[in-house]
Amino acid sequence: MALANWAGNVRFGAERVETPASVDEVQEVLASATRVRALGSAHSFNLIADTDDTLLSTARLITAPRIDTEARTVTVGGGMRYGELAPALEAEGWALANLASLPHISIAGAIATGTHGSGDGVGTLSSAVAGLQLVTPAGEVRELRRGDADFDGAVVSLGALGVVTEVTLDIEPTFAVRQRVYEKLPLEVALAEFDAIMGAAYSVSLFHRWDAPDVVDQVWTKARGDEAPLLPGSIGEASEQVHMLAGVTPEATTPQRGEAGAWLDRLAHFKLSHTPSNGDELQSEMLVPRAHAVEALRVVRGLAARFAPLVQVMEVRSMRADGLWLSPAYEQDTVGLHFTWLPRQSEVEGAVAMLEQALEPFGARPHWGKLTRLDPRVLAAVWPRLGDFAELARRCDPEGKMRNPFLDRVLTAGR
Ligand SMILES: Cc1cc2nc3c(=O)[nH]c(=O)nc-3n(C[C@H](O)[C@H](O)[C@H](O)COP(=O)(O)OP(=O)(O)OC[C@H]3O[C@@H](n4cnc5c(N)ncnc54)[C@H](O)[C@@H]3O)c2cc1C
């Protein structure tokens, strides 16, 4: 197994890699190691999953999906990827409310970092979690259901509480989606009509490459139902299938042009069978309260000359508030300002620090799975339940078996 993440910008310092296939085997790995980090599909861009001792790959924790039609849930092994679960659900007439931009990521890894798609009325992927099975560092198997005392702290867990062996997700009857892409939206119209545009379809993303700073290159809309979204301004639909990155052919992207298709073939931007995005990139994201989104975007516009040469594309997405302590949308409707960068780590780190600093006044939260300066002062300010989370982590893991420097920094900020 490669000891590097998907982007290749992180090499893990693990002494050994274990790939357990059952709860018993997870317990054995936890009992035999001094320090452990779970590793899902390794799509995070920072050192969150790193360890100097044992990496526990979840690749074989993939029990077959169990659908409960009455409760409207599905239970799967934590190592399963969304792209593997989705066809199994669709075959039985069921769907998930949303997907991230790609279906390649593991379910437990995605929910541990607050991964999200877009949609004013749709929560993060973590908010679809109805239950978890967790093996604690001491080897105890815990079942947590929505409504249980520790549940809201245990979903976006950063891998701090143990190894998630099963996840139960909300499902709903399958539905069709029509995806349409519109091109060349003036930035001023986007800002003036922000709510109307983000609310024009079930899921909306704005893609801005910043080479022409005052024009948003593409608006991706994913609609349930037959109506084409009504967008302000004289913005036209792309006449053919497009990619959001300049000069990249669109084979990897899910079907556009308004043709109806099942949710699993439209909600993600990228097909499971293809490399998502560019493959040669870094990512960062700041999540700002919806109420400050337009102001925050104006600040970003003001800095464009300084970061634009490093950007491949920026994506703006929205999500509904939830109650999960470390969720990007904890207790506030939220807008994500995501950046896909050129793979120039040190320059990108400088740009990320500049943007994070500039967006501090808006209470911007960093994405747990992407590049961030992880400033403890900011973390403490933007996540009001961080102290409770640190306490929960200490209770689940008194010996610090799941700790690594990334987590130490987060938990110290929560003191
Ligand atoms: C091309 C690309 C596109 C992306 N698109 C999006 C997007 O649309 N939206 C978005 O929000 N993010 C996006 N991301 C970020 C991505 O969703 C997160 O990094 C997510 O964590 C990936 O899941 P993973 O399984 O790869 O996690 P990993 O990177 O493997 O792990 C992340 C964390 O989860 C923990 N973890 C993993 N599995 C378990 C488990 N079973 N039990 C306990 N802890 C566990 C790990 O210990 C670690 O702390 C994207 C990333 C890439 C590379």
End-to-end gap: 36 Å
Task: Provide the CATH architecture of the domain at 66-174.
Answer: 2-Layer Sandwich
Cα radius of gyration in angstroms: 20 Å
Summed up, the helix count is 11
Number of strands: 19
Order of helical and strand elements: EHEEEEHEHEEHEEEHHEEEEEHEEHEHHH
Structural class designation: alpha+beta
Shape field: globular
The bound ligands are: flavin-adenine dinucleotide
Mean pLDDT across residues:
96
Estimate the strand proportion.
15-25%
Q: What is the CATH C level class of the domain at 66-174, in words?
A: Alpha Beta
Helix content: 10-25%
Please name the CATH topology of the domain at 66-174.
Uridine Diphospho-n-acetylenolpyruvylglucosamine Reductase, domain 3
Residue windows where pLDDT falls under 50 for at least 5 positions? none
Largest sheet: 9 strands, antiparallel
Pfam families: ALO, FAD_binding_4
Domain FAD-binding PCMH-type: 10-174
InterPro entries: ALO_C, FAD-bd_PCMH, FAD-bd_PCMH-like_sf, FAD-bd_PCMH_sub1, FAD-bd_PCMH_sub2, FAD_lactone_oxidase-like, Oxid_FAD_bind_N, Vanillyl_alc_oxidase_C-sub2
GO molecular function, one term: D-arabinono-1,4-lactone oxidase activity
Written account of the structure:
- It is a single chain.
- The chain has 415 residues and is α+β, with helices and mostly antiparallel strands.
- Among the domains are: 16-57; 66-174, Uridine Diphospho-n-acetylenolpyruvylglucosamine Reductase, domain 3, CATH 3.30.465.10.
- It contains 11 helices and 19 strands.
- It has helices at residues 23-32, 82-91, 107-112, 151-154, 187-192, 194-198, 293-307, 345-359, 376-382, 386-396, 405-413; strands at residues 16-18, 36-39, 54-57, 66-68, 73-77, 94-95, 129-135, 141-145, 163-170, 172-173, 176-186, 203-208, 215-223, 236-237, 260-262, 282-289, 311-319, 334-341, 365-366.
- The strands form 4 sheets. Strands 11, 12, 13, 14, 15, 16, 17, 18 and 19 form a 9-stranded antiparallel beta sheet that branches. It has a 5-stranded antiparallel beta sheet with strand order 4-5-9-7-8. A 3-stranded parallel beta sheet has the order 1-3-2, with helices on one face.
- Strand 4 (66-68) and strand 5 form a beta hairpin.
- The chain is globular, with a radius of gyration of 20 Å.
- The two termini are 36 Å apart.
- The relative contact order is 0.14.
- The mean pLDDT is 96.
- The structure holds flavin-adenine dinucleotide (FAD).
